[in-house]
Amino acid sequence: MSEAEAVREPGGTGMAPDAVEAVPRRAWLALGVSTLAALLTVIDISIVNVAFPSIRRDLGASETGLSWVLSGYSVAVGAFLLVAGRLADKRGRRRMFLLGVGVFVAASLLCGLATSTGLLIASRVLQGIGSSVIGPTSLSMVLPEFPASRRSMVLGIWGASAALGAALGPSVGAVLLEYLSWRWVFLVNVPIGLALLALTPRYVRETRDPDATGRFDVVGLPAGTLGVALVLVAIVQGGDWGYGSSATVASAVAGFLLIVLLVVRSMRHPEPLLDLELFRIRSFWSAASGQVFFTTSFIAIILFNSLVLQEYWGWRPLAAGFGVVPGPALASLLGGPVGSIADRVGHRNLLVFGCAMAGMAPTWLLWRIGADGNYVADFLPAQLFLGVGVSCTFATFGSLGLREVSPARFGTASATLRTTSTMGFAVGVALGVAVFDAALPLGPLVAFDRTWTVLAGLMFAGSLFCAAACPPRRPRG
pLDDT at position 391, please? Predict the structure, then answer.
C-alpha cells in the first residue's frame, strides 16, 4: 500500500446523501474493533463504582481517596481529549489508538496490582489518559472507511456498544466482587486490551489529515489541557471542598482564564488546539451544546437509580447490578436500527423525542417510588424510558455533530464533542449530589424527589433546545 493510500480520506463520494453504497468487509471488521474499544472504556467507567466498598476495606482508603479514584480518571479524560484528537489527525489515528490502548492496558494492570490508595489514584489517572486517546480515535479511524450515507448507522452501532458497556458494567462488577475481588474489576481490561492491540493493525488502515503540518500551538496546548483539568477539578471536588471555598473558586477561575487564553490563541494560531471553525457549523455546535443537557442529566440518573436500589430499598450489590441492566440493554438493542434511520427521519426529530423519553425516566420515578416499591411496576418502566431515550440520543448527537465535518477533521471534532460531554458528566454528578445532600435532612424520599425533579427538568430543557437549535432534516437527494 502506498503512503498516499495509507493516509487517504474516503468519504467525499459525491453521491446523494440517501444513496446506499457498498461497504467492504474490511470496514465492518474495523468497526468491530472500534466497538470493542467503546465497550471496554464504558465498562470501565460503570464497573468501578460497585467496587468502592471493597477498595475501602482492603486499602484503608478514606472518602477523599475514594473520590479521587473516580475524579482522577474523569479529570484526566477531559483534560487530554483535545490534545488526543489533534494528535490523531496529525500523526495518524490508528497509531494514536494503539498508543491509547497500550497505556490503558498498562494502567489497568497497575490498578489491579495497587497496594495503596495513592498508587491506585495514580494508575487511574494514567488509565484516564489512555481512555482520552481511545475515545476520539476509535471513531475517527473507522469513519473514513464508510461512505457518508452510512455514517449515522456506524455511529448508531458504536453508540449501541457503549450502551451495552453501561449495561454490563454494574452486573459484571458485582459478579467479579462476589466471586473474585475488586482487583479483577481492573484486571479484566487486560485481555480485552491485548486483543485490541492484536486485531487493530490487521483490520484497521491508517488515516490522517493530509494537510496537517505537524506544528502545534505551544501556548494553547498546555493552556487548554490545564484549563479543562482545573475546571473539572473544581466541579468534581467542589462537593468535598465546598463550592464557595477558596480552593474551588481558585481552581475554577484559573481554569476559566486558561480556557479563555486557549480561545484567543485558537483565533490567531494557524494550527490551534481548539478548531473554532467547527463552531461555525450549525450541526456541530448544536450537537455539542445539546448533549451537555443530556449528559448532565443522564449520568446522574444512572447514579441515583443505583442508589435507590442499594441505599433506599436495601438491595445487595449483585442484585442491584442486574437491576439497572434493562435500560442500557434496551438502548444497545435499539442503537443500531435507530442509527440507520437517523438521516431519513432527521437527527433533530430523534433528539427531541429521545431527550423527552429520557426525561420520562426521572418523572416516572418521581411519581412512583416509595419506601416499599415494586421493581416491575415502579422501577422497570423508568429503565425502559431511559433505554429508548438513550438509543435515540447517545450516538445521534455524535452523528449530527460530525454530519458536515470533513473527514480530515474527524479526530479533532470527535474529541471536541467528547470534551463537552465529559463536562456534562462531571456537572451532572456534582449537581445531583448537591441537590440530594441539601434535601436529605428532610428525608431520603424528599431528597430523591427533588433530585429527580431537577434531572427531569434538564432532560426536557435539552429536548426544547434541540427543537430550537438543531438543523432540520436535509432534503432527499
Answer: 83
CB within 8 A of 463, min separation 6: which ones?
A: 351, 352, 353, 355, 356, 359
In the predicted structure, residue 16 carries a pLDDT above the cut 50: no
d(CA 167, CA 174): 12
In a domain, 288, yes or no: yes
Query: Is 368 within a domain?
Result: yes
Is residue 1, in this structure, part of any structural domain at all? no
CB 425, CB 74: distance < 8 Å:
yes
User: Residue 448 belongs to what domain range?
Assistant: 25-207+273-469
Say if residue 340 is in the same domain as residue 452: yes
What does the alpha-carbon distance between residue 359 and residue 353 come to, in Å, rounded to a whole number? Answer: 10
Cell numbers placing 24: 467492504
Q: Which CATH number goes with the domain that contains 408?
A: 1.20.1250.20
The answer to whether residues 178 and 323 belong to one domain is yes
Q: How many residues does the chain have?
A: 477
Higher-confidence residue: 7 or 404? 404
Each residue's pLDDT tens digit, 221-276: 677 777 877 877 787 677 677 777 888 888 888 888 888 887 888 777 767 777 77
User: What backbone phi and psi angles, to 5 degrees, belong to 405?
Assistant: -90, 135
CA distance 424 to 426: 5
Tell me the residue type at 420. T
Give yes or no for a contact between 144 and 10, defined as CB atoms under 8 angstroms apart.
yes
Select from 295, 185, 291, 289 the least CA-distant residue to 235: 295
- Identity at 267, one-letter amino acid code: M
Asked if residue 455 has pLDDT above 70, the reply is yes
pLDDT at 211: 61
Q: To which H or E segment does residue 388 belong?
A: helix 380-402
pLDDT one-digit tens code per residue, 399-446: 788 778 777 677 777 777 777 777 777 777 777 877 887 888 888 888
Asked whether residue 200 falls in the same domain as residue 102, the answer is yes
Number of folded domains in the chain?
2
Rounded CA gap, 280 and 286, in Å?
A: 10
Same domain, 424 and 356: yes
Rounded to 5°, the CA angle 381-382-385 comes to 90
